[in-house]
Here is the input.
Amino acid sequence: MLPQTTVLPASRANIQQVFVKHQGKRHEVELDPTSTGETFKYQLYSLTGVEPERQKILVKGGQLKDDTNLATLGAKPGQTFMMMGTPSSGGNDGALERPKEKMKFMEDMTEAEVARQEGATPAGLQNLGNTCYLNSTLQTLRSVPELQDELLSYSASAVGAGPSSSGGLDLGGFGLGAIDLTASLRDLYKQMAETQEGFPPLIFLNALRTAFPQFAQKSKTGHGYAQQDAEESWSQIVSQLRQKLKTHGAPANGESSTQQKAETPFIDKYLAGRFDSSLECDAPAAKEAGEEPVLGEDVFLKLDCHISKDTNHLRDGIMAGLEEKIEKKSPTLDRDCVYTKISRIARLPKNLTVHFVRFFWKREVQKKAKIMRKVTFPAELDVVEFCTEKLRKQLAPVRDKVREIRKDEEDVTRARKRQKMAHKHEEDRKAEAEREPKATGPANRTDSTKDKNDQGKGEDTEMTDAVYRTDAEYDDERAAAILAAKKELFALIDPELANDEGANKSGLYELRGVVTHQGASADSGHYTSYVKKQGTIDPKTGRRKEEDGKWWWFNDDKVSEVDAEKIETLSGGGKLRSFLRILNPFVANFNPRRDSFCIDSAIPCHRPTHSRRGQGITKWRYCINCRPCAGIFGRVFA
Here is the structure.
């Protein structure tokens, strides 16, 4: 009878028993050379309770990484490794616990739950017949985070608007009553948050056309509705929100609780700025006669970027819009004179809208025309130079500190990457040297000894603290540095700005959304919008995670993800034009200074009195009817 033998699988035959010392204890662990460092760390996690990302295991050549092949360590049976690290505060000495929340699979979730998951695609909006202008506007407006929060608490009955006897059901969409545009917007955004499919904005579209009849204009062909201007819809929606949507501010010193109930328009707080302006006559005779410049204040809801043959960048267009020539009667000379109006920003809102003025009324052909010139824009806009002297002094220290902190953080990140790459190259070099056949000759032994000495010297140079620090330690150090930088930053903020919750504190704005128009004609073409992806909210900490730099492209009901490089192509120059931009400050929309009415129409004109351009001089005039007025922007608004 032949003796029996036991054959072990190849994977088990190579397993070695090693020891790991941690906090005075010696743990016996099975090391599988065919596995990686991540597997080995999870083995130690079950023994010590130290999470893998908090472990620091010292091996030959440095620190064990997750992707390191254990075969390259050359470990021998009985070899001892040193491990450092402590469990997180939420740990329980490695004990396994039942999950506090029941695991739920995607197949068991409702459509609304799936739409709220991390990485879910936001809902698009169906095109209901030349409504791409509205879809793009709504998607961009939705990117204002403060607006979302305020709309959730909005009640139509609280402001005396909307139906009050229909059991909470808005019947305006069925032609059975007036519709509250703000309530319709609130409901629309709520429904969009509960789906990933294209949603038809029927109720809101009906409310918009009821409130502003120009959006119900039929097309010239007689089939369906006409194409409209996205900026027109933006301005009308924002103006309606300004009337209806109110927010409570913190009471000022000495105010009573009843005074606190005085509500502030949400738009004025978060999306409106203020101009300080001076209007001075250019005629020397007026100055000699003692005519003083007229000082004034104007509220603005957007900044206009005027485009001329000399405009190449967003900064040029904004600066051109802040200095303008107008013609009016001089009370001193009793005749028409040319005046220069210079405006500077005295208050910056937290969210700023910039309008590229590409559509204008061409008198020769009696129709709207489009300026096709390419105008570039930055991903971060610095508006300090457009501000008053007082505001510049308040913003400049904060802006400079922000840039300094950002530069320091970039330097640390680059240094960390260089150290990681150097450490990886060192490990690869040593692994390659171990795989080479060893020479036995005397001369080769001498060279080998010399190489080892050189390696030892190199190791002493490379084995710095940065090499042995874990990612968790880097993150802890970064969090501490950010906290210290924030304290320094807040100390630089002027008390007047600090008390204004809805104001920008630095003068810097980050590009968050773009509405574009594709096509050479103002009365046709197609609108789409781009909105920068926000970092998901961590359910444990309640904070947003870092953004990946990607953007959502909303093409009606089609929603796709694009890279940031795509946004750089939206500067115009062809049939594509940039239109509206929502910018959020590192913390960023239209200026209705006086409403007017169409002379030859019973329908109120939805634009303020606009102007015409002629030989560099702007004269006041009223529009003839609503259609020519749509989308026309002169250099001055009355």
Q: What stands out?
A: Residues 389-435 form the longest helix (47 residues). Residues 388-431+474-505 form one domain.
